[in-house]
Amino acid sequence: MSQSSSQHTTALVRGADLTADERYRLLSNDLRRATIAVLDDRSGRVELSEVASAVAARVDDVDATAVDAEVRVETALHHAHLPRLDDYGVVEYDPEANVVVA
Description:
By secondary structure, this protein is mainly α. 60% of the residues lie in helices and 9% in strands. The chain contains 5 helices and 3 strands, in the order H-H-H-E-H-H-E-E. The longest helix is centred in the last third of the chain and has 19 residues, at 69-87.
């Protein structure tokens, strides 16, 4: 990830009231780091499918050309990563509407 993406990631996470351990835990996962970077570039409500598409394109270990890559990323974001980011107050995620607010 580039230095500017890293700076954006840190800025978005810094906005939440987190301990150092919580920050490290959240940033320890490639999908969460990419998700935070993607959401930092957007404002307001963002559809989960849009986030998943952008994250799949950013993450090195995801073959973004694979037909099911976005579906796999979307599933992981929906079930694991966005709820965790929501729990820590970094984003708001509505799993019923599949909408993220940064």
